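Morning. Coffee machine broken again, so started the prediction first thing and wrote up yesterday's gels while waiting. Chain of 553 residues, entered below exactly as on the submission form.
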Amino acid sequence: MIIDYLDGSTPSNIDTDVCIIGAGAAGIAIAHAFVGTSTRICIIESGGLAGERISQKLHEGESVGSPTFDSYHSRMRAFGGSCNLWGGGCVPLNKHDLEQRDWVPDSGWPISYAELAPWYDRVRVFCRIDTHDIVDGAFTTAPSVAPLPLDDATLSNQSFVSAPILFGDAYRNTLEKASNISVLLHANLLELQPREDGASIDHARIGALDGRRGKVSARHFVLACGGIENARLLLLSNSVVPQGLGNQHDLVGRYFMDHPCGNLGKLFTDSPDIVIRPYDQHHGEGRAPLYTKICLSPQVQYARHLLNGRIHAFPVEARLPDGIRALRALRAKRRQPLQDEGAQLSEQMWQAMKHDKASDEPAATTTDSTAKLMLRIGLGVGDIAHAFVRKLRDRTTVVSDYIALTGYFEQAPNPLSRITLGDEHDALGQRRARIDWQLTPIDRRTYREAATLFGDELARSCNGRFEPESWLLDDDAPAKVHGTAHHMGTTRMADDPRHGVVDRHCRVHGIDNLHVAGSSVFPTGGWAFPTLTIVALAQRLADTLQATTSLQR
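Came back before lunch.
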């Protein structure tokens, strides 16, 4: 069932078997694995069923690093978590991503790809992408449009699948009807309260924004609140262990990673469709369409000691014909305004996160009246007809001036890139997160070398010319990159507690009944969208919890 903690008629205190903090992809996947069992599950979710500004403000934090970091727009407090803004991208990490690389300090997972592979296979059903098989970190389905024949020693084509669901929408009804599962909305974790010896958690102190307070007692606890909040909540749980839970070696919050993204340069060619068409995400087929990305090959990563990375090629339109501009403006004017607060907030956050589409063309204006726009469309009917013919020929509707190459990269693990507690307090009286996002020399070198590798190879394929961005030509220039809301690494996985916060089973070192789920446990992140790996590790953790003898009733 789904309960609102703001409803005063609900109990303040709850007793359960497993308490999951966070109803995002990881929390929902774990809870779903227990549907129909005798194990009682309670999910604590800070937000409501949809986004709310009052809850979202709890995500405000302080950015003190370089590049700067937007903590408010890069995550969402609501049932379904940040996957309410998810584009559906599913791709597994590959074996190279999980291996130790001697040129990448602190790289290497304690588990191999072979250990993770069965869980990738299993969660295809949960993510509703089971029409595609996964072998050796790749999908076996052939893309609908053949990708470019690239030099395998430098670049490779790698497929990803777009899942047709949002987890909150897809599994809300199932969790609501499950007799052994309770979802507690508008309930915020204030502290995980350990017993006196600090070796196990006794209960979770929770509170609502209206001042209500209570606790959840459980046998096992799972922290599943994302890469920033998982670290923050462990650090806030300091009444018994002053340095925070799992932080005996000062590792909680360290190694904070994202997938840095930035414009690498411009590709000028008379044949842009050669590059654009094979990677156009409008050509997907079926319930869960498959697309292709251009990536750095494992061979070139090893040969040049680079991090993993990929690019997306965006056609940047030449001067937009007035008829097309007027048609787009009319469409924008006729869109119904979003009245629902959740929809408005989601749209605001989605727009804030859309850094990746390069364009020199200003947005279509909607200040003209409908009558004036209709007149402009009539006068520009030839432009519209020409665009329609181009679309029928499977080309971009407007001729491209150039192709912008945008890169998305793995970030090297860096202990100085970290989440700590700031001096400001939120509406619950809790210290906000301070985000010190830091890059390393290998990150910057990867951007510079990868830009040339991508640009030159694609220029060769279309008989074009690549012009890198100026910041890549100056070793001392700051990297012009931003985050992509893939927060990883702050409670990293390691067999040795001196090197990680959780063990290979995602249990916090030194605490027998506390686990962490989500991408905060990733030691490294490859370039892959993290959601499929998050869900695979969550299902693996659910099996671990189910096998624990203390859960047998």
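Confidence is low (pLDDT under 50) at residues 356-365. Going to sketch it on the whiteboard this afternoon.
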